[in-house]
């Protein structure tokens, strides 16, 4: 119980923090949810409360670990104020060139290793002889 409370207070990457939940409860308006379980919120601008914000604040609470690449293209546009209409109200359809989400594997055993990398499977290919080393003063 104490561990969960401390995690909620101090680790934003494991989910919503305690103060974020309080803010959502008090002033946030739920806009929608995506196929990954991420939930999107907005808070309309209130110039009397905070004149520094000229437009509404928008944020996402991730389902599990905070991974920004899990935001689908339609929600990404709404989050970055590219469009004012959220995908739930717009009947958004992804463009053919927009790819589905793939997790970021950097730093894991499944990370991309290009051919010739010392970390790639198998042996490194032999040098082809097209490289001439630089020597100082030559």
From TrEMBL:
GO term, biological process aspect, one: response to oxidative stress
Superkingdom in the source lineage: Bacteria
GO (cellular component) term, any one: respiratory chain complex I
Region described as Disordered: 87-138
Stored NCBIfam families: PRK08183.1
Originating organism: Blastochloris viridis (Rhodopseudomonas viridis)
InterPro entries (UniProt xref): NDUFA12 (IPR007763)
Identification of the protein by name: NADH dehydrogenase
């Amino acid at each position: 119980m104490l561990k969960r409370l401390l995690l909620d207070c101090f680790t934003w990457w494991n989910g919503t923090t305690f103060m974020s939940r309080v803010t959502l409860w008090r002033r946030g308006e739920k806009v929608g949810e995506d196929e990954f379980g991420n939930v999107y919120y907005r808070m309309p601008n209130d110039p009397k409360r905070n004149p520094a914000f000229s437009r509404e604040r928008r944020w996402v609470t991730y389902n599990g670990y905070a991974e920004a690449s899990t935001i689908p293209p339609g929600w990404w546009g709404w989050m970055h104020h590219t469009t004012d209409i959220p995908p739930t109200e717009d009947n958004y359809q992804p463009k053919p060139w927009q790819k589905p989400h793939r997790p970021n594997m950097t730093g894991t055993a499944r990370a991309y290793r290009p051919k010739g990398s010392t970390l790639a499977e198998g042996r490194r290919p032999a040098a082809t002889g097209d490289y001439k080393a630089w020597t100082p003063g030559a």
